[in-house]
Design brief:
This protein is an alpha/beta fold. It is built from 16 helices and 22 strands. Among the domains are: about 260 residues, FAD/NAD(P)-binding domain, CATH 3.50.50; about 100 residues, Alpha-Beta Complex (Flavocytochrome C3, Chain A, domain 1), CATH 3.90.700. About 35% of the residues lie in helices and about 15% in strands. The radius of gyration is 23 Å and the shape is globular. The termini are far apart.
Length: about 600
């Protein structure tokens, strides 16, 4: 057994920032990660970090833009925390040596981004995430933080009290990819989940193969609600053949979208008469797909993104890696011709329910970054708001887990007094197929067991699970995973309707039943990717189902969630968050109200237009 004060699961931007903050607060910190830190998907972030740094800009304007972009489903305490803290966190990165792009006068550069009223997106070319990741990894190495590299965290060691809010987390169980051993990691003070996105739920995504939503699924099965899972961002500019991201920075620098008829459709077809290509991502994605569906798409699949008019010097200075991506994956020379783009799954606005200190309803369990929902992004994330979320809430989670007093949170977690129960309207059963599948929290002798005993019980359960998978013969997990990905892309995409959502739930149920018959053909103990992917597919099943349940329940059009049956935002009935709780294998649906009251103002919902 390995023992530390704070265990951070994941080594992307949020995990690295949490580890640095916990170490600075005096904790013995360890990072447990299935990827080497600089291979984390944060490195694929291209656009930038929103921060009110310039004269003429203010955090209050950033907060208003963020709340508007969220379609008024963001919680004001979280939004205001993000916008207040982002400038100092961005400056801290610069002091640590992050290579931001700069103006001739030496100031860091900022560019316009979609949905922003001021050009406040601070960037490092079109590889901001890469620079951020390496900068913070240097700080982790400098501080001597222990990194358990290539360990796949399988489960949390959580007590088994009936109410999740009475449970406590004492560590994690992880599989050493290099040796095949299953071991426990004891956390004396807290576990921070920073496992990133869940893009592998879909078959066309900007996310890496490793983005299987592990942290969200583990917290869900431990009893933490998943919040607003139906809100998935589809980025408007991904390469059709691969899903590789083409940065919003292209449009921020002046890139133009055209349809097959050569029309600048964002303006000419009235999708965003003021902001055009720099409307928020949900608006642009729907516009592109509408053009394709109405016969104005190119090859009935995509539209063109043109940046030739920016000139070679500007492109090479600010967007050089975009040229390489378009050439390598599509054979398009961005200096000479437009690039093909179409919407692709990009980001999850929902995730593990937390307060503004990163803490969940389970004592000692935290989450930060994309796997968490605090909620900063509400119904739609603005481009440039993901990276500040990593550093702002990663820091707060690390500090709080290490014992720093950050004050009483204003955001509630779990089934608090404002929780509203609801019924799940599904044509098929949801949740666990096998009764044993639903019993996730582990305790040796009931909830009162000490932390070591809880961890030992969890380790033994996971060792048995690995042995069963290695000894079993059956279908390959890839058959199950592809079934889920195909139905999610077909039915839970940009445009959603009741019939398709119910079909997705039926398909996911079928996939759940087939998952009971999976086998691992590779019997080896070292670098067994078949085994790892089989375990990840379980997480994909749980997440896909919860996401679809939330999408079916929310019968309104808000942010990235479009419903054919209800083509307007329904503030009277739906100004609330969805919460889905595992409850020992039987998912429960509930709601809690959005917090629109900020420190000095209330954010009144208004028509969201660009």
């Amino acid at each position: 057994m390995h023992e530390h004060d704070v265990i951070v699961v994941g080594a992307g931007g949020a995990g690295l920032r949490a580890a640095i903050a916990a170490q600075e607060a005096g904790a013995d910190v360890a990072i447990v990660t299935k990827l080497h830190p600089v291979r984390s998907h944060t490195g694929a972030a291209e656009g930038g970090i929103n921060a009110a740094l310039r004269d003429g800009d203010d955090w209050t304007d950033h907060a208003y833009d963020t709340m508007k972009g969220s379609d008024y489903l963001g919680d004001a305490p979280a939004v205001e925390t993000l916008c207040k803290d982002s400038p100092k966190e961005t400056i801290q990165l610069e002091h640590w040596g992050m290579a931001f792009s700069r103006e001739e006068d030496g100031r860091v550069s900022q560019r316009p981004f979609g949905g922003l009223s001021f050009p406040r997106t601070t960037y490092a070319g079109a590889e901001t995430g890469h620079q951020l990741l390496h900068t913070m990894y240097e700080q982790v190495v400098k501080r001597g933080v222990t990194v358990y590299d290539e360990w796949h965290v399988m489960n949390l060691a959580v007590t088994d009290e009936e109410r999740p809010s009475d449970r406590s987390c004492h560590g994690v169980v992880a599989y050493d990819i290099k040796t095949g051993s299953v071991e426990g990691f004891r956390a004396n003070d807290g576990v921070i989940l920073a496992t990133g996105g869940l893009g592998q739920v879909f078959d066309h995504t900007t996310n890496a193969v490793a983005n299987t939503g592990d942290g969200v699924a583990m917290a869900y099965r431990a009893g933490v609600p998943m919040e607003d899972m139906e809100f998935i961002q589809f980025h408007p500019t991904t390469l059709p053949s691969t899903g590789v991201l083409i940065s919003e920075g292209v449009r921020g620098e002046g890139g133009i979208l055209y349809n097959d008829e050569g029309e600048r459709f964002m303006f000419e077809h009235g999708y965003a008469n003021n902001d055009g290509e720099l409307a928020s991502r949900d608006v642009v994605s729907r516009a592109e797909l509408t053009e394709v569906n109405e016969g104005r798409g190119i090859e009935d699949e995509y539209v063109h993104l043109d940046m030739r008019h920016l000139g070679e010097e500007r492109i090479l200075d600010r967007l050089e890696n975009i040229l390489h991506l378009a050439e390598d994956f599509e054979g398009a020379d961005g200096l000479e011709e437009p690039m093909p783009v179409k919407p692709g799954q990009h980001y999850a606005m929902g995730g593990v329910e937390t307060d503004e200190n990163g803490e969940t309803c389970i004592d000692g369990l935290y989450a930060a970054g994309e796997c968490a929902c605090v909620s900063v992004h509400g119904g739609n994330r603005l481009g440039g708001n993901a990276l500040p979320e990593l550093i702002v809430f990663g820091r707060r989670a690390g500090q709080h887990a290490a014992g720093d007093d950050l004050g009483e949170p204003q955001i509630t977690t779990g089934k608090s007094d404002d929780y509203e129960p609801a019924e799940i309207d599904s044509p098929v059963p949801v949740g666990a197929v096998d009764p044993d599948e639903g019993t996730e929290p582990a305790a040796a002798d009931g909830g009162a067991a000490d932390g070591d005993a809880v961890l030992d019980t969890a380790v033994e359960a996971e060792r048995e699970r690995v042995e069963e998978l290695l000894d079993s013969e059956g279908i390959n997990h890839a058959e199950v995973r592809s079934e889920v990905q195909e139905t999610m892309t077909a039915n839970v995409n940009v445009f959603r309707e009741e019939e398709g959502l119910k079909q997705a739930l039926a398909d996911i149920r079928d996939a759940r039943e087939r998952y009971q018959e999976v086998g691992v053909s590779d019997p080896s103990r070292t670098f067994n990717t078949d085994l790892i992917h089989t375990m990840e597919t379980r997480n994909i099943l749980d997440i896909a189902e919860a996401l679809t349940v939330g999408a079916l329940a929310r019968n309104e059009f808000r942010g990235a969630h479009w419903r054919k049956e209800n083509q307007h935002r329904d503030d009277e009935n739906w100004l609330k968050h969805t919460l889905i709780t595992w409850n020992d294998g039987e998912p429960e649906l509930g709601y809690k109200p959005v917090i629109l009251e900020g420190e000095d103002k209330t954010y009144e919902p208004k028509v969201r237009s660009y």
